[in-house]
Specification:
The structure holds 2 protein chains of 2 kinds. By secondary structure, chain A is of the alpha+beta class. Chain A has helices spanning about 5-20, 25-45; strands at about 50-60, 65-70. In chain A, β1 and β2 (about 65-70) form a beta hairpin. In chain A, α1 (about 5-20) packs antiparallel against α2. In chain B, strands 1-2-3-5-4 form a 5-stranded mixed barrel. In chain B, strands 7-6-8-9-10 form a 5-stranded parallel β-sheet. In chain B, strands 11-12-13 form a 3-stranded antiparallel β-sheet, with no helix packed on it. In chain B, α4 links the parallel β6 (about 150-155) and β7 (about 175-180). Chain B starts with 20 loop residues before the first helix and ends in a 21-residue tail after the last strand. Chain B is of the alpha/beta class. The chains are: A alpha+beta, B alpha/beta. At the A-B interface, α1, α2 and β1 of A face α4, β7 and α9 of B. β1 (about 50-60) of chain A pairs parallel with β7 of chain B, so a sheet runs across the interface.
Amino acid sequence: MGSFKEELERLEAIVRALEQEDLDLDRALQLFEEGVTRLKAARELLQQSELTVKRVLEAADGTLRTSRTDL
Amino acid sequence: MKAPDLFASAGMGPGDRAWTVTDVTRRARQLIESGFTRLWVRGEVTGFKAYRSGHWYFSLRDKQAQVRCVMWRGDNQGHQAPAEGTQVFVEAEPTVWDEKGEFRLTVRELIPTDATGAWQLKFEQARAALERDGLLDPARKRPLPPFPARLAVVTSAEGAALRDIVSVLRRRWPAVEVLLVPARVQGEGAEGDLLQALALVNRLPKVDVVIVGRGGGSREDLWVFNAERVARAVAAQAAPTISAVGHETDVTLTDLVADHRAPTPSAAAEAAVPDRAAVGQAVASLARRLGHGLARRTELGRERLERTGDRLEAAIRGHLDDRANRLARLAAGLDALSPLKVLQRGYAVARDEAGGVMKRMAQFNLGETFLLTVSDGDVRARTLGPFVEAQGNSPQRPRSTQR
């Protein structure tokens, strides 16, 4: 999945195409299916309810690690 | 008059070429204003007077000299009038006051030299340095991404600021990943910590927004966010920055260089992420439109298909009709050619016992039987002999015989 912004923008474009353009039925169905897939992805993201907080630590050799923290 | 020449007129007596007072003071002002840029001057305030117009007039002096100063109302607003004898720093533009022929400073900024004054001076100097480097240019401000996936937070791991930020993010947009880069935000070591943390954030991959700040505190508590190096480190962030230094009235240098300034850490979190409820509504609306869009499109298709079907059926029907007509015509033609039709008109056909058609008289032998086919069947007949013309009756052809 692309960024949420890209997902929404693509979804917008699909909806507009379905609403405005004189598409052949095959193309319309194809767009609709793509739209449904993207809707699902967007809804999944929206339904994610657990916030992840990670603390960034720098090791002595300069490498970065993260560890989950509860807040 | 002609442009005055400072040297040409030196040593001249009174006459046409003497300068007017206006010309000489104006010329002096031009020379002084072009010879100095804005500068900081330190001195002791004396003879302070605030006029009803709001402008301040005073002198600055040290052991050897003094200079007249004016600070216009527009510049002294928000400043406390300095007490007589106070040591101050002023940021000023030297000029000549034409009306009094007086050298003086137009003061733009005035800061007492006590502890806060020294800080303030440092702040102003750092601010001027940042401005020179273009870091305060509003055109540098970057927009915040609408849907950040990863957020870096530079603040104290123990402070209320982090808790506030996390609680707002949890409510508004929990899909974001928070990377906490801890740093002390006040006191000894805070500047070093912040510099290190900000450098580290620049090494983290795919950071969409950086929040840097702390909760409210005294001016002294917040002072590290006025450090020029901290401000420069914020300005050097790869991702857009939100400053959240918890003090609504004082603006820190960090606030000035950040892409977005929030008055509190909670406000910074709100600015960083969208509201899940609002986005959910927008997505639901898109879902409805998607459904309607397809329904409308298929409805159109169905109608069109029906129209096409009608045309097709009509075409086929027409085609079939054509063929039926042709068939009927052909059938009629066939019917017309049928020998039955001839028989119906009253003719008969004679055939021998083998079924061969008897067309000539010679085929008929006296006394022999033959078949006579008429319109509705066959009859048996016998040849009695050639028809002989009698009493002037003279048929052209042999008449097929009697029964």
